Amino acid sequence: MTQHATKHIFVTGGVVSSLGKGLTAASIGLILERRGLRVRMQKLDPYLNVDPGTMSPYQHGEVYVLDDGSETDLDLGHYERFTNGPLSRASNCTTGRIYLNVINKERRGDYLGDTVQVVPHITDEIKACVMSLRGDDVDVVITELGGTVGDIEGLPFLEAIRQIPLQIGKQNCLFIHLTLAPYLKAARELKTKPTQHSVQQLREIGIQPDVLVVRTERDLGAGNAEKIALHCNVETRAVIEEPDKEFSIYEVPLGLVEHGLDELIIEKLNLKAGPLDLTHWSELLHRVRNPQHEVTIAVVGKYMQHKDAYKSIYESLDHAGLAHSTRVLVKRIEAEELQEADPESLLSGVDGLLVPGGFGMRGIEGKIEAITYARKNDIPFFGICLGMQCAVIEFARNVLHLEDANSTEFSSDTGHPVICLLDEQKQVTHKGASMRLGAQNCDLKPGSRAEQTYETSQISERHRHRYEFNPAYRKQFEAAGLIPTGYSPDGGLAEIIEIPDHPWFLAVQFHPEFKSKPPAPHPLFAGFVEAALAHHQQRMQMGV
Ligand code: GLN
């Protein structure tokens, strides 16, 4: 379906943060793709870090890595899981990157003679970033602006997107504003005033939203929709209610379609679209609603109270569960708790153990305790990045009896550095974007569990690390039963390890969670959940 020019949708948020703007933007992308349109997604983040790679997961949740090695906001994970358009460095742009580009240009002399200012130089740079996604093969660019209207740091971004319709025509742009209509128990009423105020703020900046998506705990009702429409100067049919989804995030796109959002966008942007096909999505939801089995997976990490710190891991476990009609219950365990408690008290009754990636030594000994428990009790174990490194340390200490075995990340003078710094990292001094990052190929050992699970012998996965399995210990490990089964194509780096003499013990140096989608679960997650299910069934038969 050829369009005349790329159209733009801007998604902003008002009233409060954490409204699920990323999920709504991804859902809009999904419903437009399901109408045959070619969509590109983008996130603008108004903080000064050049990318989120240097931030703790406590700040904005997990750092999501793309094939090209960009470290990005976790909303890009929603985009990749819900839509199919390619993502790259241009898909996530922060204030830091914008300023860095402008300052580099100034130093190079590109603006020679000019005073360099927020308007027009910063705003032009933001516009260029949005425009860079246009193309003959793109029907719609959806740009989500992080933060909430009213934030000081978001102003240059709002000013830039206000100017875009002047440049490419009002008819080619659509502004969607996401707000909240809270329910006040004492008044027994939904309140529309915060939405009115938030739209007022947008209009003061010069942006008149075309569509309002209103998050609600209770039914909005026709009266409230009309009131919002009147006060906010939008059509009543463009006030789209988005009730809380207790059950599953997969309901969001279906809810938007029910309220006619796909049709409205297509009409307002004059897009040539095909009929809607959401069959596969409805089927997925049916499977979410009707699981046949249930397993409990323990995830042992450092940020268990933060709902988004291991976002892609939790999502990938759900996808894998769907493949086996299984509800996956996650038991979140703080690694440090395992350092004090008996592992049995926290881990008995779980059907699988997953140790995710991470940095720094806090919680390491707890993760190692958990892995010992899984290894000795035949509980399926899946280690990811730091999780693999901990599995190597555990085996070295408890099976090879190298008592002070460690990673040089945690103990620079250990007698047995079974995990050590990558050669390419030895000269690195800066922290930003300097790890081994992004897609790397990996060859799988014939006959290994990895090869059987992937059903292929060459894979590509995304990386984000500085340390590696120390090849000097390889023979010792192999002789004792821990086998590297995936190598970088030059044969230098062990990317996967397995213990064949265990029901399912596999760990990887990369991040498979960044490549799992609801309709296409990652093979390793699917294999792990299948093994957990077998363990569960065995447990039930034995009555333990
Ligand atoms: N800290 C480890 C390293 O840098 C693991 C990184 C990770 O888990 N992403 O190699």
What would you say this structure looks like, in words?
The chain is 37% helix and 22% strand. The chain is of the alpha/beta class and 544 residues long. Helix 15 packs across helix 16. The longest helix has 20 residues. The mean pLDDT is 95. Glutamine binds next to strand 19.
Mean pLDDT: 95
> Uncertain segments of ≥5 residues (pLDDT<50)?
none
Number of helices: 19
- Described by the principal axes of the CA atoms, the overall outline is globular
Question: Which structural class matches the secondary elements?
Answer: alpha/beta
The small-molecule ligands in this entry are: glutamine
Give the total of beta strands. 23
Strand content: 15-25%
Helical percentage: 25-40%
Main beta-sheet strand count, sense and barrel state: 9 strands, mixed
Report strand order across the widest sheet: 13-12-14-15-23-22-21-18-19
Whole-number radius of gyration? Answer: 25 Å
Q: Terminal Cα separation, in Å?
A: 58 Å
